[in-house]
C-alpha cells in the first residue's frame, strides 16, 4: 500500500463522514493528540528500560505513531487544511533554513 498524504486524508474523511458525530471539536481533538503522544511516550519508555505494568506489553510504536498521524489528519481535515501542502512547506523550510545545520556524511566510494 502506498498513498499520498492527500489520499490518506481523504480516506480519513470518508471514514469520519460516515458518522453523525463527525470530527471532534478542536479542543477535544487537541486532547486526543496529547493522549496519543503519551501513548507513543509509553512505548518509547518501555523500549528504553521502563518495565511495563503487570499484564501490559511493550506496545507497538508503529501503531502508536499511526494513531498520532490519524489524529493529525483529523485536525487538518476539520480545519480545512492540507497536510500534503503543510508537509511540503515544512520540508522546504528544513531543506533551506537547516541546509548547513548538520554535519554531512562523507561521500562514499564511487
Ligand atoms: Mg494509541
From TrEMBL:
Residues 26-102 form the NTP pyrophosphohydrolase MazG-like domain. SUPFAM superfamilies: all-alpha NTP pyrophosphatases. It comes from the Bacteria. This is Nucleotide pyrophosphohydrolase. The lineage of its organism: Bacteria, Thermotogati, Deinococcota, Deinococci, Deinococcales.
Amino acid at each position: 500500500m502506498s498513498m499520498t498524504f492527500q489520499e490518506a486524508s481523504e480516506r480519513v474523511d470518508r471514514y469520519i463522514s460516515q458518522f453523525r458525530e463527525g470530527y471532534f471539536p478542536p479542543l477535544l481533538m487537541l486532547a486526543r493528540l496529547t493522549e496519543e503522544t503519551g501513548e507513543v511516550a509509553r512505548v518509547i519508555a518501555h523500549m528504553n528500560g521502563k518495565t511495563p505494568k503487570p499484564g501490559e506489553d511493550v506496545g507497538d510504536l508503529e501503531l502508536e505513531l499511526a494513531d498520532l498521524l490519524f489524529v493529525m489528519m483529523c485536525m487538518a481535515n476539520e480545519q480545512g487544511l492540507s497536510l500534503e501542502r503543510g508537509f511540503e512547506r515544512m520540508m522546504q523550510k528544513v531543506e533551506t533554513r537547516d541546509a548547513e545545520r548538520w554535519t554531512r556524511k562523507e561521500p562514499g566510494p564511487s
